[in-house]
Amino acid sequence: MSVSSSSSSSTNLKIGIIGFGPFAQFLAKTMINQGHTITAASRTDYSELCHDLGVSFFRDVEAFLEAENDVILICTSIVSLSEVLKTIPLHCLKRPTLFADVLSVKEHPREVLLQVLPEHSDILCTHPMFGPESGKNGWKDLTFVYDRVRIRNEATCSSFLQIFEREAGCIMLEMSCEEHDKMAARSQFITHTIGRILSEMEIKSTPINTKGFETLIQLKENTMKDSFDLYSGLFLHNRFSKQELENLELAFKNIKLRLLGRVNEVQDLDYIIR
């Protein structure tokens, strides 16, 4: 069943964003265009940028929480999530609120949110599988993963999900946080790892590029646009990433052994011929 089938129309929401870096700004622009009201709180002073966007910016977190947001969207880095949430004065919340996150790992934020938030707060774990570059021409047919961890207010949850499904045209994929992290370790983490290996090798364009090599260069460039904090978070806070790193290392060793074995075969053949 699609998200929109549970509600005939979406409601304009008041969405508070914690952490207003580039990805949060990217999401906020679409949300504003859809008629939602956005407030923001961040350790960095984004007051001027928020003014230009039409976003109410709070330096005072207590005032931010007292603004009675329908949804509070967590857009911190993976590695700072626990620290940020544990310093938020949640007692200032005036009413039950839906908390959602957009982190690239899912089990970690689920556990932190369940541990830190009041029992009456709803929790929705999400991962938009796109960003400012891949989503710059719209979100249609891009994948949005979500897990309804603890939802009581179906109307608010549905209205928030419809931002991505009906309005933006995303492919909505509901799956458990565990299943997401298993898949992400094999896809996203490995992609970032290969990109960073290529960067360490300092590969550059040549006059005789093949299409495959151009793809590798693009992979390296796209990967290095993301911070090392993001990459380390994909490793430190996804329990399946360590195994995938070991699998990658083993695969490299196996290929190397096969190549060296072929070298020995050729040397033995040359010796016989001589």
From TrEMBL:
Keywords, ordered alphabetically: Oxidoreductase
Keyword tRNA processing: no
Biological processes annotated in GO: tyrosine biosynthetic process
Alphabetized InterPro entries for the sequence: NAD(P)-bd_dom_sf (IPR036291), PDH_N (IPR046826), Prephen_DH (IPR003099), TYRAAT1/2 (IPR045011), TYRAAT2_C (IPR059064)
Boundaries of every Prephenate/arogenate dehydrogenase domain copy: 13-274
Top-level taxon of the source organism: Eukaryota
PROSITE patterns, alphabetized: PDH_ADH (PS51176)
One Gene Ontology molecular-function label: NAD+ binding
Name this polypeptide is given: Prephenate/arogenate dehydrogenase domain-containing protein
